Structure formats: C-alpha cells, structure tokens
Amino acid sequence: MTRKDFLKKLLKLSAIAAFPALYSWQIEPFWVEFVQRNLPIKNLPKELEGKILMQISDLHVGDRFDYHFLIESFQKAKQFAPDFVVYTGDYVNHGNAEDHEKLKKVMGNAVMGKLGTFGILGNHDYGKNWKDLGSSEITCQILESQGIVMLKNAQKESNGLNFIGFDDLWSPNFDPMSVMKDYDASKANLVLCHNPDVCDKDVWNGYQGWILSGHTHGGQCRIPGVITPILPVENRKYVSGEIDLEDGRMLYINRALGHSFQVRFMVRPEITVFKLQRDEI
C-alpha cells in the first residue's frame, strides 16, 4: 500500500468514525417524530370519538440547545389541528430567570387544543434540587397566561373528558391522593403524571385507564434490546412507548421533545398524536 492509499483509507475511516458523533449531536436531537396512535378510553362520549389529543413533554428550555427548535416543532404540530393538547412537565431545564424568559418566547407559540389544553409540572420546573417552589409558580404563571390549565393534584373535565393531573413525584407538592380520593370510574378519565415511577406507588384508588408520562426521554441514547445507559427511574422497564401495567392501567411514556443535553442516538424527539376511541370493554 502506498502512502497516498494509506492516507485515503485513514481519512475514510475517520469520516466513518466521526459520523455517529455528528449524527447524535446535530441531526437526531432535532429530527422530531410525530408518533400517531389510537387511545381507547372507557366512557368516552360518542362525540369525542376520532378527536385528536396531542401530548408534548419535556421541553427543557434553557441553555443546552437552541429553543427555536421547539417553536419550529410547534408550528409543525399545529398542522394536526389538535382538539386537546396536554403538556406533561419539564418546561425548563434549570428553573432560573433566564430559562423563564426564554419559556415566555417559546410558549407564546404554544400548540393549543380547540377544546382544551392542560399541563402538569415536572421535576425540573422546581429548580435546584427540585425544591424551588418560587420557580414552579413562575413556570405555572407563564403557562396559565397562555391559556393552559395547570393541574396540580387536581382534575378538570372538558367536553366529557376528565383530565387528572399529578404534581411531580420528586417535588414538595407531590400529593396524588388529594385528587385520587375523588376518582370517579364512571367518567372518561385520563391521568397526566410526569414521572412513570408513580405507577408503582399505592396512590391509584382502583384507577383503570391510561396514564400519559414523560421524564425518561427514552434514555436519549440507546441501542434497543441491548443497552439504555441513562434512565432516571427506579423501574427500568419504564423507558418509552406503551406499557401494559396488567391491572387495567395502560402507560404511555413520551420520549420528550427537548433534551437536557444535546445528544440523541436511536431515540428521536417525539410529539405524540393520539386519536381518541371509545373503549367498549
């Protein structure tokens, strides 16, 4: 092999080796996937069958990536003309003043449901050590100023669909039983719960139905079936997508639109587009 041939091969190998790093840093973190699937709900009013419910989770507005990606994704999401939109926590990354100013700009372009828009808080919305109540209140004020109904251990019915929202598991305000004590199985219920680990807590009062979560980001980097190195939950089966909890509850974990660090590999950012169906079982 000549020196020239050797250098050509070395350059080619270097390019091949560099591609995964470039892809996971500059391409996949901004390659949003609109996941479309059905969502069967017991007691769903007939007039809501076929309506669109969109889940957006884990924006992580802050200094880790360009927030204009979120605004661009919102513009694409609006093309689905959702009837309901739910935001399932972690709107900011650090919960400081800079994050909140950027969040105002992002949420000024928020996707809103024609029939209702609801939100819950995540751990990052509570700032440092997930204990900053002031930070969480500012986040709530920003969201509510845009018309988003924030559910903090509370429930709200809209057009026959009852939204039950838990405050975050790691926050000082986690108290799901304050709302679940009033759980009414005769309603068309849907639970919003940022951290899926709550599914293993004794707080459900016989609830049957769907739970929409976020928090995990799907691990951000993983080789499915082989390794998911970073997963911020105790129950390692809570990665992403649909999980049958085998007790009448179904869990869906959104992979997050934003990211705490600008790196993703085989875990594209997600906005979930659910089509509501009547569950006749």
Number-wise, the strands total 12
| Low-confidence spans | 10-16
The number of distinct helices, counting runs of at least 4 residues, comes to 5
- What class, by secondary structure content? alpha/beta
Rough outline: globular
| Helix proportion | 10-25%
- Give the mean pLDDT: 93
Biggest sheet statistics: 6 strands, mixed
Order of neighbouring strands in the sheet with most strands: 1-12-2-3-4-5
What is the rounded distance between the termini? 70 Å
Can you write the helix and strand succession as a string?
HEEHEHEHEEEHEEEEE
Radius of gyration, taken over Cα atoms and rounded to an integer in Å: 20 Å
- Strand percentage, roughly? 15-25%
Task: Give an overview of the whole structure.
The protein is α/β, with parallel strands linked by helices and 281 residues long. It contains 5 helices and 12 strands. The chain has helices at 3-27, 68-77, 97-107, 133-145, 177-180; strands spanning 33-42, 52-56, 84-88, 116-120, 149-150, 154-158, 161-165, 188-192, 209-213, 241-244, 249-253, 270-279. It has a 6-stranded mixed β-sheet with strand order 1-12-2-3-4-5, with helices on one face. Helix 3 links the parallel strand 3 (84-88) and strand 4. The longest helix is centred in the N-terminal third of the chain and has 25 residues, at 3-27. Mean pLDDT is 93; it is low at 10-16.
Question: Which features does this protein show?
Answer:
alpha/beta, 6-stranded mixed beta sheet, 23% strand, 22% helix, 281 residues, 5 helices
Describe the secondary structure blueprint for this structure.
Elements: H1 3-27, E1 33-42, E2 52-56, H2 68-77, E3 84-88, H3 97-107, E4 116-120, H4 133-145, E5 149-150, E6 154-158, E7 161-165, H5 177-180, E8 188-192, E9 209-213, E10 241-244, E11 249-253, E12 270-279
Parallel strand pairs: 1-12, 2-3, 3-4, 4-5, 7-8, 8-9, 9-11
Antiparallel strand pairs: 2-12, 6-7, 10-11
Helix pairs in contact: 3-4
